[in-house]
Each structure stands twice: as C-alpha cells, then as structure tokens.
Design brief:
By secondary structure, the protein is an alpha+beta fold. The protein folds into 2 domains: about 160 residues, no CATH class; about 60 residues, no CATH class. Helices cover about 40% and strands about 15% of the residues. α5 packs parallel to α10, α6 runs antiparallel to α10 and α9 packs across α10. It is globular, with a radius of gyration of 19 Å.
C-alpha cells in the first residue's frame, strides 16, 4: 500500500502489459527510495519472521506510525534510511528480503484497488499500472496478464490476508462512545501490528476463560502465525464494532 500520485496511474487495457525488472535494467532499485509505504499486518509478519525479530523490535527499528485524518486508525509505514532515503532492505544486488517483501512491492508496477464488504466473501478489485518516469521496465518485451503476474509474484496469499484487514479499516460501523476510543485504538494497533503481544494477550491472560474458542482453533493459533492473525481480525470486528464474530462463555 503506497501513496501514489493520480497522474502516475494508467488503466490496464485488456488486462495485458509488458514489463520486466532485473539487474540489467538501468533503473534497477530506483523505485525503492523515498517511499510512503504502508505496511499491512501480513507484511509485518512476513518481514519480522524473515529477520528473526520480535514484533516490538521490528516496529521500533524499521517503522513509523502515523494517523492521517480522516482515517480512524493508525497506519504503520516503512522507515527509509535517513542518509539516502532508500529502503533499508535494498542494496546494489536488489532486495535482501525478496521472498518476504511487502505486498505493494510484490505486485509493482501493478496497483490494486480493492474493497471488501461485510456481506461478500471476496473483495472487489480493480487493477492499474503505476508508470513512474524513472521506470524502464516497461520497455522490456515480456508480456503479462494480471492473472499471470499475480501468480508469478506470489501475491494471492498476501491479497487474501490483506483483504480481511481492509474490511476492518474501511468499515463504516461506529466505534462506540468516545470514552472508549483510546482503548480501542490501542487494541487495533496491537492486534494488527504486534502479533507477539496479541499472542500473549490471548494465551497469557483470562482471555480463553472468557471466550468460547474451539480447542482445535486454539491449537492452530498456538502453532501457526497466520491462524493467529486470522483470529486477530475476527477479534477486532468484535472488540471495535461489537460484531458477533466471537462468542463469550
């Protein structure tokens, strides 16, 4: 998720485009600087696990947090290097965490706009090209369909996880009384961005005594980060909006 100027966006004609990025292209890694790159919960999970870091340490070292009205929730962005404003994970050879790079980097130069409604199982999506002046990859003759590009870049799992979170941050449901907002924003931050702390919240508090969670789900959450994150999204719907996604005992 990046902040992109509308002038750079180009509709996809027939869903086909030509593009390739490799070290032989003169602009290699130029797109990896001066970014306003919003990290999703799944981005953070993949990156911090790749680096062998705790959520706390990753957030402190590599991110910044901002709240830009009219947004109701804080967004976490990747912190660029102070010296050259480049991504901290890029060197002359390319991305050092390539297999676990953020979703927005993963599908570049394609942009994806999606909307997930509560009553719909799948998100509605629209694709476009991001044509930045420095990018020479469009001069390459490799042709792609959107479907081929998404498979090649391993985007499906990212999109599936990110769309669940998108449903939460774009919801128009009320957050309730103003006196509860500060607590709810803190809960949103923890459950979205700090999965280590959320795990302690679930497993080292009275949580499992208060809520009726199937034992097989508890086992999966204890072993698999993605299962815990899926549950975190359901918890946020319950705790922020009062939706009936989790049952109390």
């Amino acid at each position: 998720m990046t902040a992109i100027k509308d002038s750079l966006l180009e509709p996809l004609k027939d869903g086909i485009f030509t593009f390739a990025c490799h070290k032989g292209v003169d602009c290699f890694t130029k797109c990896c600087a001066s970014l306003s790159l919003v990290l999703t919960p799944y981005d953070i999970l993949r990156m911090k696990n790749r680096l062998g870091m705790t959520s706390d340490d990753f957030l402190l070292q590599y991110t910044e947090t901002r709240l830009d009205p009219p947004a109701r929730f804080p967004m976490v962005t990747l912190k660029m290097n102070q010296e050259d404003k480049r991504c901290p994970f890029v060197n002359s050879q390319g991305c050092t965490i390539y297999e676990d790079r953020p979703g927005a980097c993963r599908i570049y130069p394609v942009g994806r706009a999606s909307m997930k409604l509560e009553q719909e199982k799948e998100a509605r999506e629209k694709f476009f090209l991001v044509r930045e002046g420095h990018c020479l990859g469009f001069r390459e003759d490799k042709a792609w369909s959107i479907e081929e590009w998404m498979v090649d870049q391993g985007a499906d799992e990212y999109n599936a996880m990110n769309d669940q979170w998108l449903e939460i941050i774009t919801s128009q449901r009320s957050l309730g009384p103003e006196k509860d907002l500060s607590r709810k924003i803190q809960m949103f931050f923890m459950a979205s961005y700090n999965l280590d702390k959320f795990k302690k919240f679930v497993f080292e508090s009275r949580f499992l005594r208060l809520f009726d969670i199937p034992s097989e789900m508890i086992d999966r959450m204890a072993k698999e980060d993605t299962e815990l994150m899926n549950f975190a999204f359901e918890w946020l719907k319950f705790s922020l909006f009062g939706m009936n996604t989790i049952r109390m005992r």
